[in-house]
Each structure stands twice: as structure tokens, then as C-alpha cells.
Amino acid sequence: MTASALPASPLDPAALRASLDAWAAELGFSGIGVATIDLPEDETHFLDWLHAGFHGEMGYMARHGRKRSRPTELIPGTVSCISVRMDYWPQESADAAATLADGNMGYVSRYALGRDYHKVLRSRLQKLCERIEAEVGPFGHRVFTDSAPVLEKALARNARLGWIGKHTNLIDRHSGSYFFLGEIYLDLPLPVDEPSTAHCGTCAACMPACPTGAIVAPYRLDARRCISYLTIELTGSIPVEFRRAIGNRIYGCDDCQLVCPWNKFARPTREKDFDVRHGLDHSQLAQLFAWSEQEFLEKTQGSAIRRIGYERWLRNIAVALGNAPSSQVIVAALEARARHPSALVREHVRWALAQHAPSTAAR
Ligand code: SF4
Known about the structure:
This protein is α+β, with helices and mostly antiparallel strands. The chain has two domains: 13-92 and 113-186, no CATH class; 206-362, no CATH class. The protein has 17 helices and eleven strands. A four-stranded antiparallel sheet has the order 1-2-7-4, sandwiched between helices. The chain has a three-stranded mixed sheet with strand order 10-3-11. Strands 5-6 form a two-stranded antiparallel sheet. Helix 14 packs parallel to helix 16. The longest helix is centred in the middle third of the chain and has 20 residues, at 117-136. It binds iron/sulfur cluster.
């Protein structure tokens, strides 16, 4: 948090809160609210989740102790939190269900088809801070976009941006769940919003829809089974027990959100930064697998996908190719990588070729 100084004009918290809605809309946010930073129940839920080991290899989830659920321990001086959301479903993109149903195509989670959201949100949050500073003078603040130990969904719920659904994503009654979240911790005492109420009701559609059974109970996600974790967070070998269920999902998964009835209210983003890049919404697996490392780096420049690196990119596509309908094109693509320098890639290619063994023998 930057050093705070006396504001240029006396702070009128209610007037500042009223201005936030207009500034947020100008900056492309689809929602904004102010959250109370007391999260005792969410802290208990989070610690239970950690103790169950559901975070898997994500050691960073446990590393910061209670700082994640106690904003004042992470950033001393914090008295309130501004929470924002920004829609990401691209204006133009291939039909998600059709891509998932075509085993020759690779499915990339809709949030990752455009520019890396970390960069977009961070810069907009900084601009929002500049607007606030122009109004009230220097103030202490820090901005976050999935970048620090912050219980962002709990804060967003407290800021009236939505409720945490049984699939553990945030949902808004009027916008669905296809949005990113960002936060500003600040030392200004703003009036807080009433938390959102929950509206899952008796629905449980997301639970059986998860291909790997990662939603082990309502509001309880075993990340070790989640395809987003397996294809993005996990650094090593993807457990064999999940490979068939991964299907053609090569970066993340949207299945629990695709079936959620509230997403019929979701609207495409107006953000050009989230436009689909390089046709990643409808690409042939064999073509993606043929990318050189140089092509991977070029085509994922400025994209969240680049974070997993080329080796894991090939690992993920190898699994999807193993699940693709058998054909000479698919088998040839895999065989071309059978002697790849990476043991991780070779192991996944071996598994994938074994899935096509009858057709390989018949060639
Ligand atoms: S699919 Fe149903 S249970 Fe799951 S998050 Fe949406 S409304 Fe809640």
C-alpha cells in the first residue's frame, strides 16, 4: 500500500461511493461494489478445504496462512475493499458445445481465448485508483487480480457482485458467471454493500456435469480432480485416471458453467482485448500439436496460455489426441512427437498412442 496522506478535500465517503459506479462503467467493468473485509466463515471454509488437501500442488494457497482471509494482515491499514468484475465471454467465438463435441478440435476455456486478463484488469484497476486519487487526494491502496493471497470470491459476494455457487464460482443473477474479478484494498472508510444472497436453490446441475467429479459436495471443489487444475496448475504428469474424462479440453474447462441456468443471462464482453486470438476457439488438435516452441511463444504472446509453457501445452494436447477419434492424421501427429526431448511429453504421447492401438495395428 502506498503511503497515505491527508486528502486534498475532505473525504465524503457516500459521494465517493456514488461516483464509483460511473467510473467503473467508463473503465469497462460490468460491476463494482464495496465489501466488508471481515471473513470469519469464509476463513473456516478455506482452512477446511486446505486441510482436506484439495489444493493439490498449489502450495501458494497454503503459504500465506490467514493473510488470505484477513486483508489487514496482508496489507496493514486496509479498512475496505472495492471489488469489481469484468465480463470475458468473447463477442465472436465458435459454439462451445460444438467444439467440445468435436474430438478433433481442442477446447480452450473461454476466458483464455483473448489477452491475458491479469494485464487488462490490473491496468484498469490502476486507472480507477487514479480517478479516486484525483477526487480525494493520495490514499493508501493495493490492487489485485488473482495475483495475491486474497479471498476474492468471498469479497465479491460481500460487495454484492454475486453469490458463490455450488461449483464454487461467483454468479450474478443478471450476468451469469463468465467474468473476472479484481480488488482494491484501500485505507478509505467507504460505505459497504449488503452481501449478495444465494440463488442456487435446489439446482445441482453443475455437479454431475463435471467430467472428473471435482465438485465432491455442494460448494466443495477438489481441485486435484478439476480439469482447470490438471491442465494449467499441475506441473507434472496428468494422472491416468483422469485422462479419458479430460476429452478434448486442452486449457481449462467450462463445463460446470456451461450447464448453469444463470448463464442464459450472461452477455458477451465489450472488451476488444478478450477477442479470440489465432482461432483458438476452433483449432484442430493435430495442427496445434505441430506448433514449434517458437510458434507457441508467438501465438500465445500476451495470453494467459503462455504461463503453462510449451511442454505442458504439448502434454495437454497429447491427452486430447489420445481421446480423439482414431485416424491416420491423429496417429501421425502423435508419432511425430514420440521422441520429443521431454520425458513428460513422451509419456503422454505413449499413452495417447496406446488409445489408438487397434487403429495403429491396422495401418
Ligand atoms: S448449476 Fe445450479 S447448482 Fe450449480 S452453480 Fe449454477 S445454479 Fe448453482
